[in-house]
Amino acid sequence: MNIAIYQMEIIAGNPNLNREKVEKWINQVCADQKDKPQLIVLPELWTTGYQLESLTTLAEERGEQTISFLSKLAIKHKLHMIAGSIATKKEGRIYNTAIVIRADGECIYSYNKMHLVPMLNEPTYLDEGMKAPAVFELDGIKMGVVICYDLRFPEIIRNLMLQGAEVLFIPAEWPRARTTHWEILQQARAIENQFFVLSANGVGFYKETEYAGRSLVVNPWGDIIASGSIEKEETILTKIDFSEVEQVRRQVPIQSSRRPHLYS
Ligand SMILES: O=C(O)CCC(=O)C(=O)O
């Protein structure tokens, strides 16, 4: 599967300009018909950035505007989208919501970030999702998505592996101050679950926070096979062979060695 990751410099507080940027980027990465991606990955909160204090006005009712915008592009380019996350409103609550759009334009999955980041004041401006992430399927491949800080919570990611996920996507705006954690934890999640981990991180600054970039593609062995740089907006292109998951799981059969009845 050909995949393109957008390591994006998000314009804080300006959903219209960010949607324009994403449309331009999608048209560009899909222009080369020979190596056209079948799936794209966007970062966390890419419509608004981290201008959390404006979310009461900027969060979209059920994400409808951006979902309809992306659906048209998905149909136009026959493209699946792990469409990062956006700020959504539902019944008076505001969530950081990951969305997945299939190439036929259908939004097949959404997940409200369940771990909010104290260091970034998220609990002041956002509501916690009340449901753990679950697997969804595209082209017969089981996949999972978690958002940024969720990477620090191996339990929910293990559950995705146990549900059959062969790849984990991580839309993020992870700060540069904690780049070591960002990289090592992605490799650890790939090694312990024996699946691919693909992340789309932001770059640039919002107020005093600089984002880490270093969007990664990690294979089920834990090797980084593609990566973004630290400070530049860029596209990471990769080709994933999902048969590698089965090969690694045969070589080191941790699933059959697990003893969950002794774990709690
Ligand atoms: O866990 C961290 O250090 C960063 C998390 C984060 O930036 C986020 O979830 O948006």
Shape: globular
* Relative helix content: 25-40%
**Regions with little confidence, pLDDT below 50 for 5+ residues:** none
Order of helices and strands: EHEHEHEEEHEEHEHEEEEEEHH
Number of strands: 15
Strand content: 25-35%
Task: Give an account of the 3D structure.
Pfam families: CN_hydrolase (PF00795). It comes from Shouchella xiaoxiensis. Belongs to the carbon-nitrogen hydrolase superfamily. NIT1/NIT2 family. InterPro entries: C-N_Hydrolase (IPR003010), C-N_Hydrolase_sf (IPR036526), UPF0012_CS (IPR001110). The structure is a single chain. The model has no long low-confidence stretch (mean pLDDT 97). The chain is globular. Helices cover 28% and strands 27% of the residues. It contains eight helices and 15 strands. Strands 1, 2, 3, 4, 5, 6 and 15 form a seven-stranded mixed β-sheet that branches. It has one domain (2-262): Nitrilase/N-carbamoyl-D-aminoacid amidohydrolase (4-Layer Sandwich). Bound molecules: 2-oxoglutaric acid (AKG). 2-oxoglutaric acid binds at residues 44, 117, 120, 148-149, 152, 173-175, 178, 181. 2-oxoglutaric acid is lined by residues 44, 117, 120, 148-149, 152, 173-175, 178, 181.
